[in-house]
Amino acid sequence: MPINSNETPAEGWLGLKKHWRNDIIAAISVALVALPLSLAIAKGMGLPPISGLITAAIGGMMTLIYRSGHLTITGPAAGLIAVVGASAVALSDNPGAEGDYSGFPHVLGAIVVAGALQVVVGVLRWGRIAEIFPTSVIRGVLASIGIIIFAKQLHVAMGTTSDGNNTIEIIQHLFEKVPHINPYIAFISGIGIILLIFHARISYRAFRLIPAPVWVLGITVPIVLLYDYLEVNQIAVFGEVFKAPKDYLIDVPNNWMDGLAYPSFAKANTGTFWMSVISINLISSVITLAAAKAIDKLDPYKRKTNLNKDLTSTGIATMVSGAVGGLPVLNVIVRSTVNVHNNAKTKWANFYHGLFIALFVLFLTPLIQLFPVAALAAVLVVTGVKLASPRVFREIYQQGLEQTVFFLSTIIITLYKNPLIGILGGIGVTLVAHLLISRLSIPQFIQMVFRSGTRLRENKDGTYTLKVKGVANFLSLLRLIGILGKIPAGAELTIDLSKTRLIDLTFQEKLFEFRDAHRLTGGKVHIIGLNQHIAASNHKLALKTHIIPNFQKTSPRQQRMKKIAADNGWYYVRQENVDSSELLDFEFFRSRPLESKSNVIGGEFEEDQVDWEMSDIVFDEGAMLSKEVYKTTLLLVHLPGKIAEFTLESEGIFDRLFERLSIANRKDIDFEEAPIFSSKVKLNGPDEEAIRQLFTPELIAFLESEEVYHIECNGRALIIFKSLRIANTGEVKNMVRFTADLVKHLPKGSEK
């Protein structure tokens, strides 16, 4: 496939015929990740591990029938461990009993009803209701779920137990149980945790081709087998004797039919049952919608998911899954990211992944029965850490003090109560804060939210103007979504926020999300009036209030960039909301969402009449659980004519991040007459002959004499950057100098 091919893959039976190789290869990687994750998630919920595999198989194969997502993978999700696990305990006949599954049939009943409610929500097109929850509250719930998973599974990884009544007590018991850590179990889980943490940081290509959870099982299974052959089957540590575990393997029935279970609705007349239904339905819907939107951003073909249709399909699959002993079916982010990165093309990849899971259950049960519980606990410990990583807390803090308050209050309430109460409590704290910050009475606040006077106007020239008034927060999102839905594809829209009393982060996220999506239709969106408010922080989405000029201090970086621009006669733009849509035309950013573009300097190479701009870029690799955030200083050059498309990068230096640009269908173009150049760089593109003509001996000699930059040409423009960090002053000047010299060595190109 050419590196800049935008041809959207065919769907349905034609897609099966054309893309089955890509989808099967991607599905194999996804299934290898899903196998241990599905087992671990079910085990983490305190339910039979086979139920996780049933869910993955049904989620993969059932959702093909009626779904919208193109690259999303469906199956059991770690985000529901706390909710389903708590429901199993609450509905149990013997709460707290070790290995007690008496609540399982009742949980299955709650899962079936929750799935049915989700179908109703999808069919009635009410899916957007899940979008109105404040972003910081949702992130707080997910972080608290991560803390719950971490605390409970770390006990399993240590070989200890806790009878704490809430997560805070369970965390306290972690410290108390340190002297009682079982060395046999901790050794297995410790190796697993280390492998999972450092897998992405190891540059050896062959090592990273195998998913991290598979490495964990591949190394820990032999260790468990070794325990059976040790002559000494006990260890004394600090006077306490620990025996080698004999039954510390995953419990999966020999016959998969024995793993089937059926729902009970005997407790459907209790409040506990319906609390479980509402909690499962709410968290499932939020995670499913968030994952669908996140994977849409990673889709290199920029296809959009019909969220209501996806809710309906996962709801149907959840009902089927719960009816035979499975868990709720959700869109899952980590497996979906693996799917994208392995070059999947269509929704058939999800079907194949479910099929492979079913085959694993049918033919590899004896191998699955050798998986140590400690290894699966390690997978969940790291999953919990990712959900509540320091990066999440740092990002929230950067968005403003009030977002930190919403986030932390949601976490605390959830840890002491449950996720449903956490969401309601977080929303309550957010509303009180908005009321106080806006300095309005309660009646005034309600009127400015629901009767603000926000209006959409079509102008005589065919453009549109949306004037937003009053309090623009998460409660007014449904109205905003309805208005934005009236904007025709390709239209030009100006959104004026100058008359708003308060604009919260969730509202701004929706505006910028619409702007990015509308640009893909050929339309333009101008957002004005934000600079007339006081912002809670320097973050571009920080809560903003009051109509007064906003004077923000410039950072040392901004001062240096401004000085460089002034000294060299270049222009400088500080704001983070400058237009970055042009970068989406490059292959590198097709599956790497841009977070921000700031500190823009630019000018013109007068001799060649070529204009350029340099900016600090923040972009993502992956999303949600698998999200990594990177920063770089990037230079964009507009060429006077069309030249061959190509990508050039260092041989080996950027393998960790850039190897996806040089996998299948990306032949490395070598020049026999320039062995030093060919060994120094990787060069590829859709038209090898045109690239060989472009790379003249003079251009090759120039590039050999310079440092290796990552350079990509889409035919009309170049992007150039050096490393995954912000460039210092000297590096900025050198990059401009390098680019000016590079342009001199390139042909003027054609005007076609």
Can you lay out the helices and strands and say which pair or pack?
Layout: H1 12-44, H2 50-62, E1 73-75, H3 81-90, H4 104-123, H5 135-158, H6 167-176, H7 183-198, H8 205-209, H9 212-227, E2 234-237, E3 240-243, H10 271-298, H11 307-323, E4 330-332, H12 333-341, H13 348-363, H14 365-368, H15 373-387, H16 390-398, H17 401-416, H18 419-438, H19 442-450, E5 455-458, E6 464-472, H20 477-484, E7 492-503, H21 505-519, E8 524-528, E9 533-535, E10 544-547, H22 556-568, E11 571-573, E12 594-605, E13 610-621, E14 628-638, E15 646-650, H23 655-658, H24 675-680, E16 681-684, H25 688-694, H26 697-704, E17 710-713, E18 717-721, H27 729-745
Parallel strand pairs: 6-7, 7-8
Antiparallel strand pairs: 1-4, 2-3, 5-6, 7-10, 9-10, 11-12, 12-13, 13-14, 14-18, 15-16, 15-17, 17-18
Helix pairs in contact: 1-2, 1-9, 1-12, 1-13, 1-15, 2-11, 2-13, 3-10, 4-10, 4-11, 5-6, 5-15, 5-17, 5-18, 7-9, 7-15, 10-11, 10-12, 16-17, 17-18
**Overall residue-averaged pLDDT value:** 86
- The counted number of beta strands is 18
What is the spatial order of strands in the main beta sheet? 11-12-13-14-18-17-15-16
For the record, give the distance between the C-alpha atoms at the N and C termini, rounded to a whole number: 22 Å
DSSP strand content:
5-15%
Structural class of the helix and strand makeup?
Answer: alpha+beta
User: So what's the oligomer here?
Assistant: single chain
Reported for the largest beta sheet, the result is: 8 strands, antiparallel
The rough form would be described as: globular
